[in-house]
Amino acid sequence: METVLTFLLVRFALIAAALVVAALVVFAVALRLKRRGRLDQVRGSLEPLLRAGLHVAASRARRGAGRS
């Protein structure tokens, strides 16, 4: 039983570390774009993509909400 708990703890630690690294990379990219003055340009090009993705996710959630 102890080895299973250790495995689960290690798995959680790896996932948490990966999320922290991903957040730091996103922050570094955003900071670099802001310093170069291109953040607004990138934001403008990504906004339609994010809106479409959110629309698809919302429609999937609505379709899946009726299932049991």
Per DSSP E runs of 2 or more residues, the count of β-strands stands at 0
- Listing every helix as H and every strand as E from the N terminus to the C terminus, the arrangement reads HH
* Principal-axes shape call: flat
Rounded mean pLDDT is: 90
Regions with little confidence, pLDDT below 50 for 5+ residues: none
Domain module count: 1
The tally of helices reads 2
Report the sheet-strand fraction: under 5%
Radius of gyration of CA atoms, rounded to a whole number: 19 Å
Category by helix and strand content: mainly alpha
Helix content: over 70%
Give the termini separation: 34 Å
| Major sheet characteristics | none
Report on this model:
This protein is mainly alpha-helical and 68 residues long. The chain has one domain. It has 2 helices and no strands. It is flat, with a radius of gyration of 19 Å. The model has no long low-confidence stretch (mean pLDDT 90).
